[in-house]
Amino acid sequence: MLASNRFFRPLLWPTVATAAMFALLVGLGVWQLHRLDWKLALIAKIDERMSAPAADVPPAASWPALDVAALEYRHLRLTGTFRHDSEFHYFTQADKGTPGYDVITPMVLSSGGIVLVDRGFVPEERKDPATREAGQIAGEATVVGIVRMPQRRDTFTPPDDIEKNLWFTRDPQAMAAASHLGPVAPFFVEADATPNPGGLPKGGRTHVDIRNEHLQYALTWFSLAAALLVIYYFYHRGRGRVGRPKS
Fold first, then answer.
1. d(CA 145, CA 119)
2. pLDDT tens digits for 61-104?
3. Phi, psi of 203 (to 5 degrees)
């Protein structure tokens, strides 16, 4: 009797395992392509918001129900008076890695309400407001800046040191509670690069760095799926399961 003339005689359990793994890898690749579409739409939305002209700050009466996420990255125009006696120091770094602080100052709006404004960066040796008196703007001022949501604290974030006025998260509600400011906006505003008197604080600190590596991830998963099929083929070939069997 002649043996079967089949060119490929798959083994049951290796085939089942390979099929399951192949489906998983392809599924992960497709999921990354969906994530890519979502990320591109997010980047386009942020670009659109940041390129739009500045709007007036929403009235304080609307803040409790405000959708801050829908407002983030938009330019706002604020007019009011800074409370320099209540400024906060957020530990950070300059663009070149120089340690220092972002100066976050409450602004009492002329229309009512308080918004925390990140006025910009000062190096460590200029943390003391007395070393940058020219930048302590007196009287009514107008600031244009970008709306940002409160920062979330994670397990790697050091605790804030309220006694030393040293902050590691920019959280308007926590800062307001520490200084007994009363109700504040549920967002903060990063001032644009308009120079302050004396040059400090240095504004324009908004950085939008959204990683978009989903295409690379998708190609990786699809490549692994293809490699799995190659391994599956050579596994069977090495066991004489590929090709026409001998009579």
1. 9
2. 999 999 999 999 999 999 999 999 999 999 998 877 789 999 99
3. -80, -165
CB atoms near residue 146 (< 10 Å): 22
Q: What is the pLDDT of residues 145-196, one digit of tens each?
A: 999 999 988 888 999 999 999 999 999 999 999 999 999 999 999 999 999 9
DSSP secondary structure of the chain: -PPP--SB---HHHHHHHHHHHHHHHHHHHHHHHHHHHHHHHHHHHHHHHHSPPEEPPPGGGGGG--HHHHTT-EEEEEEEE-GGG-EEEEEE-TTS-EEEEEEEEEEETTS-EEEEEEEEEEGGG-SGGGGGGGS--SEEEEEEEEEPPPPP-TTSPPPBTTTTEESS--HHHHHHHHT--S--SSEEEE-SPPPGGG-SB-----------HHHHHHHHHHHHHHHHHHHHHHHHHTT-BSPPP-
CB 78 within 8 A of CB 140: no
* Dist. CA 159–CA 157, nearest whole Å: 6
Task: Determine the Cα–Cα distance for residues 92 and 231; give it in Å rounded to an integer.
Answer: 49
Which pTM does this prediction carry?
0.80
Does residue 150 contact residue 187 with C-beta atoms inside 8 Å?
Answer: yes
Question: C-alpha dihedral over 43, 91, 107, 50, to 10 degrees?
Answer: -10
Q: Say if residues 89 and 165 touch (Cβ distance below 8 Å).
A: yes
Distance CA 152, CA 155 (A): 10
Compute how many other C-beta atoms are within 10 angstroms of the C-beta atom of residue 115.
25
Question: Is the distance from CB of 148 to CB of 187 less than 8 angstroms?
Answer: yes
